[in-house]
Amino acid sequence: MMSSLSGPMSESHHKFVISTKASLPPLSEHDVIRNRLMERLDESVNSKLTLISAPAGFGKTTLASHWIHLRHVRAAWVSLDEGDNQFLRFWGYLIESVGRCHSSFDQVTSRELLASPGTSMETLMSFILNELSQISTPVVIVLDDYHVITDAAVHDSLAFLLQHLPSMSRLMILSRTLPPLPLSRWRVRKQLLQIEASELRFTMDEIEALQEKSSEQTLLTEDLILLEQKTEGWVAGLILAFLSIDDREDVSSFLSTFSGSHHFVFDYLMEEVLLRQSEELQSFLLQTSILDRMNAPLAEAVSGHLNASEMFHILEKSHMFLIPLDDTRTWFRYHHLFSDMLNNRLTTKSSADAREELHRRAYVWYEENGLIIEAIEHMMQAGDHDKAAECMEQHLSEIMKNGHESALKNWLQKLPLQRLICQPDLFYYRAGSMALSGHVEETQNLLERTLELVNHDESLFPAEKRNELEMRVGLYRASIAFYQGDIDTFIELLDTHREGLQRFATIVKVVNLGEALLHRGPIGFGGRLKKMAYLASKVSESPERRAAVQYALQGHGFVFLADLHYESNRVNEARAILEEAIGVQGASQNLGVLTPGVILLSKIQQAQGDWEAAVTTLEQAIKYTQSVNSPHWQQLLEARLIRLQLLQGTTAGALIWAERRHLHVTDRTSISREYENLTLVRLLMSVNETEDALSLLKNLETDAWQADRLGSQIEIQLLLALACHDLKRPVQAVQSLEKALFLAESEGYVRIFLDEGSRLFELLTSYVTQCSDPVPNEASFAYAKVLLALYEGTGIHAPIDKDSRETSNVTLTNREQQILQLIAAGRSNEDIAKQLFLSQGTIKRYTHNLYQKLEVKSRVQAVARAQELNLL
Q1: What radius of gyration, in Å, describes the C-alpha atoms of the chain?
Q2: Entry pTM
Q3: How many angstroms separate the Cα of 765 from the Cα of each of 737, 862, 866?
């Protein structure tokens, strides 16, 4: 029923969300209120995390829902299943649920989450946490059946959420197993309340209360004691026992033979319970057991029975493991153990054809009611691959947008190749997603098998379609060659398939769209400048090839080439190329091009001494990303702006930024957030928390090495050298510096050194002047001398020594001192003019005089020199 689909998410999301998954289970008159455990849960107000963990059938869900209902707790409830084992889907449902408690939360966060599938986990979590922090009343987020989650990304994101959870939010996890989260950390901090099976076992008083609600018979005290011993307080076993003894005269005799472990007891009692029902009810139970959740129309469509509502009433009244999923008792599910038993029995009692027919009926109903994910799942289980493939292709964009990529990939693996290639969008999605996830060999194998199949069986496609397929496969092979760094094959395939490139440009997905520094990721071969230069030389061989490659790189080619020139210290050439890239039509709509372009432009402006322009460039870009609601790119631009502020000697804004973006040394590092983490390293060093910076750098060093990112390795080694130098560890400082020099020399890196400014100049100078003869590493030593020569003319000098500072006679007027303080705070000339009620021209004259007195040429040099002279 379409009325069951509701909530604050977007309209396109409605067709893919079952609202009962984000609904709190209702109270039942048959349930026993367990006051001792309710009081335990009352203690959870003092804990970030409450964990209720026990095997199936111990009443975890019932206990938590009772507490929420009876204590009037504001809760965001998510009932998880195996389909939620994917990052976007998991968080989509969690956001849906929180949005039911606080509608303003969902309207912002869900849009950020679902519209940014390439965004890093930390970025998404940062925005979710920001939204949670705006909630002013306590809320408990409940994750039921968390044991179904095995995705490491989900576990990591949840740990990140816990680490930074706002004071008004708490998390409750219900699971059959202990989740792979840092539980010991929260236990030590007294932020974990844990309830296990030993506490969930029913006491004698609770067993008596349960008997009154579950059975018409009254058991003797000794029978209840025996039952408690046999079941060990396992509520599922107790309920099954009570169902089994109804209408029995030999209760004591029956209970005396009742033995075995929970699983054996369960199997035995299920047989007893099921076989004692009417034939009609048994048939209904078995046929509807294929459904994860159901309402009356769905159950009737699948089973053929026209009295599903009456069946639900009978099952619920007899407490036969039917669980309502909403307050209106419209949607239900069977207890997981009960469902497993029914499924097993259905398999043994019916043919494969009969089971497939049940799934076929289910998918017809789901499709008619707009529940596409459930429809496709049942199509696959029905073996109707043709129908499933058509439905997947028809709804491909919605499936991906709403976080069901994991399910989609699983379905595509099960589709026969001959069926898959008949749905082009699905085939190209599978090939592209495999390649982008790093499964290059598997992708190559898929493409080769496809070509063999098409050439072997010409009846599959008419000649025109076969030619189109060959072109598109050729372009995918070009994409793979690029990722492998095989430039000659990449160029050859592009030359061969230029017609296909014009028709199917988006097929060539050679760009890592989540990477801000293009030369460090796959697009730049991990930062190997010589390979980048070789590609540039091949591109320049003909205008047609240049156009083809730029077309294939989807607008990133100019930024790619500008990066190469910049790192090689050809700054003016880099700027000319970059301005062409940013100025092309449509660049502002492609933030994957615009953002790295803006970051690079600000570096060029900094290198040319125009610091104000660099700041303005970044601020304007940040405003634009805010206006188009693009948090991933906004955060990268903010990190670059923070780097400029740190170079200018101001840390206040950076400290606020780090807290707002939830950046901490103790967090797990990742390549996706490397740029922000390296910015955090610079902040830590600026505020003399260098030991923490060193610890973070060690983790980042491992990440960069594992990802084979040469450019990142060089920057990290330089920062390690500076950190060790600050900590008076000269041996380690020299070792890291030599590593950086060795890696950079072979590829010709220059700007990565020059941009570090005077502190690195001092370290390089010390290294060259104090190296003993013979030189330990001749190549590194020689390259250090080359770099020092290149520092000349940049205006960068080594810091003034202590004696020079003490004898300095630089004096400033009160007005010059005011302006210097504002410059150090990162204020623009326009802001300074407004604050001091002066014209911008007057501020420029004061600034010029300051530069002359301090013998510098830029703002950052002025701030650094003023600090050396104790003028700030």
Answers
A1: 33
A2: 0.70
A3: 12, 21, 22
